[in-house]
């Protein structure tokens, strides 16, 4: 049995129109599809709200909301999002995703529709003196986000994002 959560007749949050597509390849920035993430009855998915306007959307408790879209400001960074990685993760109504701007990229968490930076290529991790230069895919459980990062050597991190910041455990 399947249940429709959205289709072309559904108004796209943050847009004046309905959804015109789903899982469009420009979301990934690498030409591949954007894969949805599921936690119970909740799902985060890629959608196109108007031709050329792509975003991440969350269906939580039957309500669809905008997580982030191309052209929205990068929290804690400079510029706007121009791509999202192919994978995101979800725990309840909290989404963790990788976003890319013109000059840098990082991991962001959104709870209640407000994206916040966890770490990006300008962030200096605990015990290091240079910013992170690369990341592995994040995983979320409750309010803890696990990810691999690399500065001078590979390191695993757990971030516990709060409303205003993220503390890191190395």
Layout of helices and strands, plus pairs?
Elements: E1 21-22, E2 37-39, E3 42-50, E4 53-60, E5 63-69, E6 83-91, E7 94-100, E8 105-111, E9 114-120, E10 134-135, E11 139-141, E12 144-150, E13 154-161, E14 166-169
Antiparallel strand pairs: 1-3, 2-3, 3-4, 4-5, 6-7, 7-8, 8-9, 10-12, 11-12, 12-13, 13-14
Which keywords apply here?
five-stranded antiparallel beta sheet; mainly beta; 170 residues; disordered C terminus; 14 strands
Give a description of the structure.
There is one protein chain. By secondary structure, the chain is mostly beta strands. It has one domain. It contains no helices and 14 strands. The strands form three sheets. Strands 1, 2, 3, 4 and 5 form a five-stranded antiparallel beta sheet that branches. Strands 10, 11, 12, 13 and 14 form a five-stranded antiparallel beta sheet that branches.
H/E topology pattern: EEEEEEEEEEEEEE
The coarse silhouette is: globular
Rounded mean pLDDT is 79
* Number of self-contained structural domains: 1
Distance between the termini: 43 Å
Helical content, roughly?
under 10%
Q: Please state the structural category.
A: mainly beta
Give the helix tally. 0
Rg from alpha-carbon coordinates:
16 Å
Strand content range: over 45%
Largest sheet, if any? 5 strands, antiparallel
How many strands appear in the DSSP assignment?
14
Poorly predicted regions: 163-170
């Amino acid at each position: 049995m399947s249940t429709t959560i959205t289709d072309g007749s559904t108004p796209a949050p943050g847009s004046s129109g309905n959804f015109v597509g789903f899982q469009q390849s420009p979301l990934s920035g690498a030409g591949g599809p954007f894969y949805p993430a599921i936690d119970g009855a909740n799902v985060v998915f890629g959608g196109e709200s108007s031709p050329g306007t792509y975003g991440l959307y969350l269906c939580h408790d039957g309500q669809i909301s905008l997580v982030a879209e191309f052209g929205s400001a990068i929290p804690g960074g400079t510029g706007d999002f121009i791509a999202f990685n192919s994978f995101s993760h979800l725990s309840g109504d909290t989404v963790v995703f990788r976003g890319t701007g013109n000059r840098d990229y990082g991991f962001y968490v959104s709870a209640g529709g407000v994206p916040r930076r966890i770490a990006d290529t300008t962030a200096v991790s605990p015990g290091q003196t240079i910013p992170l230069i690369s990341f592995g895919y994040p995983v979320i459980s409750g309010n803890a986000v696990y990810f691999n990062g690399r500065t001078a050597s590979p390191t695993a991190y757990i971030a516990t994002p709060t409303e205003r910041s993220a503390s890191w455990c190395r």
